[in-house]
Design brief:
The protein is an alpha+beta fold. It folds into three domains: about 170 residues, 2-Layer Sandwich (Alpha-Beta Plaits), CATH 3.30.70; about 90 residues, no CATH class; about 100 residues, no CATH class. Helix content is about 15%, strand content about 30%.
Length: about 375
């Protein structure tokens, strides 16, 4: 197996907020992370609409033995120079049993931890001493919180926050400083036949100045040419697709102006390589191939959560249709694929009478982007 390349981060800042459905269909519910399967689908779609052949682009990802030129993480929050990562599904593994029991409800608030804390965890360090005080008025020593405790970071990372955050008189006041805000925005639909109006509320997430979402790209074969295309390598094709996608936007409700973004490329991040058959931490969603089961989920140290992805597909050639429902392992899960690359691409076209409903595949990516996880954090297998 080739060594895992470095992770190249892309930081997205959104001009008018965005709508990321927590369950893919309900406009009231929003998420503050963008899953890797949605990101891959968006890039593939815009590549096709720009004149490329999506099936040629997807061919190495969809091979019987996948050989993806690149792997994508999901997109997570960042604040200034501080990137955040998903908390492990079993968050107690970051602490000693005594500290986990003492922290209690405090742990339930945390959704993401900073890159500094994530690196400490990847080195096998327990994070007891970095937990922020349960008393909101208590001055943090080694660790502190943002976003009412949803974002957890090290005190020595404060200088990398946006200027507006650093102006806080006391560090404990940062706990109530929002990185993102969730709101309901009124929308209206008009019936085409009766002209009757229907008002509904659509969820929207907006970010503070200097904040947004970031995702990582692990390049395996950046200079590989896209099959059947004249000229572009996968690196070039990815760059062109991302350039176009920033104007098209991400997420739902794009006709209302949501989802458009600007982006910057950051310096590559070096993270531990995952080892075949050993527990690895998922930075993306993961759909194990049949040959990877049950081994990927049954070794000591496995702890995972399943997410069920549905929603709608829309094509220029026909009406909107429901996609096949798909179960994926969530980001922050600990799995142990027997080999890498792990996972696959799944065609989620609905079938009627045993035949696909649209003439081309509709892919969701379940290819795993994972990093090595310390053996000392491994416990009995758990799932949610």
């Amino acid at each position: 197996m080739a060594p895992m390349p470095e992770l190249v981060p892309y930081h997205l800042t959104f001009r008018s907020g965005l709508h990321l459905g927590a369950h893919g269909e309900n406009p009231h519910k929003v998420s503050v992370s963008l899953p890797s399967d949605s990101l891959f689908a968006a890039l593939l779609d815009v590549f096709g609409r720009a004149g490329g052949d999506p099936q040629s682009f997807a061919a190495p990802f969809d091979a019987e033995s996948p050989d993806p030129p690149l792997l994508l993480s999901s997109a997570f929050p960042f604040a200034g120079g501080v990137r955040f990562y998903p908390l492990p599904v079993d968050r107690r593994r970051l602490f000693s049993p005594e500290a986990a029991q003492k922290a209690g409800k405090l742990l339930k608030r945390i959704q993401f931890l900073s890159e500094g804390l994530f690196r400490l965890a990847l080195q096998g360090q327990r994070l007891d001493d970095w937990l922020f005080p349960p008393d909101e008025a208590g001055e943090p020593r080694a660790g502190l919180a943002l976003q009412d405790g949803a974002l957890w970071m090290a005190r020595d990372e404060v200088q990398r926050l946006p200027e507006g955050f650093r102006k806080a008189v006391k560090l404990h006041a940062l706990r109530h400083h929002p990185v993102f805000s969730l709101a309901q925005t009124p929308r209206v639909t008009i019936d085409r036949i009766t002209s009757a109006s229907n008002i509904f509320q659509a969820g929207r997430v907006t970010f503070a100045q200097g904040c947004g979402l970031w995702f990582g790209v692990a390049w395996r074969q950046p200079d590989r040419p896209v099959a059947g295309q004249e000229g572009p390598t996968y690196r070039q094709a990815f760059s062109r697709a991302l350039d176009l996608l920033q104007h098209d936007g991400l997420g739902g409700e794009r006709s209302a102006g949501y989802g458009a973004f600007g982006f910057t490329e950051g310096q590559a991040i070096s993270l531990p390589e995952p080892l075949p058959g050993a527990a690895a931490f998922l930075l993306s969603r993961y759909h194990p191939r049949p040959a990877e089961l049950p081994a990927a989920l049954s070794v000591p140290g496995a702890a995972y959560q399943l997410v069920f992805v549905g929603g709608w597909l829309r094509t220029p050639s026909g009406p909107a249709q429901r996609r096949k429902r798909l179960a994926l392992l969530a980001e922050g899960s600990l799995a142990a694929p027997p080999a890498y690359p792990a996972g696959d691409l799944v065609d989620v076209r609905p079938e009627y009478g045993g035949a696909p409903s649209v003439p081309h595949p509709v892919y969701r990516s379940g290819l795993a982007l994972a990093v090595g996880w310390p053996a000392e954090f491994s416990q009995e297998a758990k799932h949610a």
